[in-house]
Amino acid sequence: MSDTEHLTTGSPKPVFPDDGILKLYSMRFCPYAHRVHLVLDAKKIPYHSIYINLREKPEWFPQVSSSSKVPALELVAEPKNSVLIESLIICDYLDEKYPEVAPLYPKDPLKKAQEKILVVRFDQFINAFYKLVLHDNPASLGDTDLYAGLETYEEELKQRGTEFFGGTAPGMLDYMIWPWCERFSALKFSFGDHFDLSPERFGTLLKWRDLMLKDRAVKCFYLDGKIHAKYMASRRAGTADYNML
Amino acid sequence: MSDTEHLTTGSPKPVFPDDGILKLYSMRFCPYAHRVHLVLDAKKIPYHSIYINLREKPEWFPQVSSSSKVPALELVAEPKNSVLIESLIICDYLDEKYPEVAPLYPKDPLKKAQEKILVVRFDQFINAFYKLVLHDNPASLGDTDLYAGLETYEEELKQRGTEFFGGTAPGMLDYMIWPWCERFSALKFSFGDHFDLSPERFGTLLKWRDLMLKDRAVKCFYLDGKIHAKYMASRRAGTADYNML
């Protein structure tokens, strides 16, 4: 478990040994950064985690990440200390660069493209999720959009008839959507028991969730619903509590 | 040159011979669809173009494109007539599936990821472009954001010292940003001569533009600034004139 203190305005840039190990700039509760942790952990690639306070960023951070955002992956062994940004681009890079352990895409270009389309379509769920989580009066919103966004995945996994979208092990699609699925269980702590997936409507996804919870990479970075709910409440109040762990 | 009549509500689904040739659902003035035309033409892949009226779509179109958007590429030779959506996913698929002619990415995974980051960062320019083009009173907006979005590319190409971002021939980055660069020359017809790139500030990109205009794939789908300006004016007026050609 890494130190999860988040560096902030005034924090010096951390110094690491010249060990050639990747550095991941992250935020402990950021689901986009979570994607990269999952892929690094699935592929057993060692890395240093550096957590950034996104409200009061260290002065040196924009020089590291051209977008000033997390996740940013610094490839210290590459010329000019190359830094990659954008969660999907980083994860695709890692899968191409480290194909031996846990290859995450189908080899066939068409099947690979279809997985990517399902990753992009998940934005519908992500948007509905944030609309709910960050709304002043979430109870007024209802949950129609939220569940509609998930139905595609329930149907897809049922049709595939496999344990994971990736087959017998999680693939890129599994890991790319997992951060929000993990956070789904925060909703009942924030907004009441009716925010739970119905076994009749989402039976396949519920079985998938239980299997994902046993996956080694998922366990490496897992937080339970209560903790996610506590962080989301602090964010909604405008005082995101990055160092609560 | 394909027939550019756009199919609309009530239009029957066009019937093609069982020739195994790709079908591209497009709109003649859509820059995202333009990306796919460029890659197909660069790779000399034959395809049928089917143009869709996006304001009054044919009833059968949502069954073809799961997002109801263009571009959508129907792979008629694949099982279940697979249809791909999302311009970047389609173009990446084409580059993987047809690597022999005009390979568009660097082979090195890091360099490839860096090209993808530059494609995504171009959204800054795209957003500024649309804000201007679709604004009621464009003169009031100025052009700061527009030019700021281009500076990254001027600097990048200068540093590379190559004719194209792809080296001696256009690569994925060249083709992915080209549709908006082609449309840039519409701005002076719409909003006046001051919307032109300054040779002092954008000398490298201006040379690149002249070279791109000579590229075979670019020429295949090229429209001049006056025509783009006329289409944009019709769109701004709420009466997008798809069939003006």
UniProtKB/TrEMBL annotation, chains A, B:
Any one Gene Ontology cellular component term annotated for this protein: cytoplasm
InterPro entries: Glutathione-S-Trfase_C-like (IPR010987), Glutathione-S-Trfase_C_sf (IPR036282), Glutathione_S-Trfase (IPR040079), Glutathione_S-Trfase_N (IPR004045), GST_omega (IPR005442), GST_Omega/HSP26 (IPR050983), Thioredoxin-like_sf (IPR036249)
Biological process, per Gene Ontology: glutathione metabolic process
Pfam name, any one: GST_C_2
Keywords: Oxidoreductase
GST N-terminal domain sequence ranges: 20-102
Domain of life: Eukaryota
GO MF annotation: an example: glutathione dehydrogenase (ascorbate) activity
Domain GST C-terminal: 108-232
SUPFAM superfamilies attached to this UniProt entry: GST C-terminal domain-like, Thioredoxin-like
Family from the record: Belongs to the GST superfamily. Omega family.
UniProt protein name: Pyrimidodiazepine synthase isoform X2
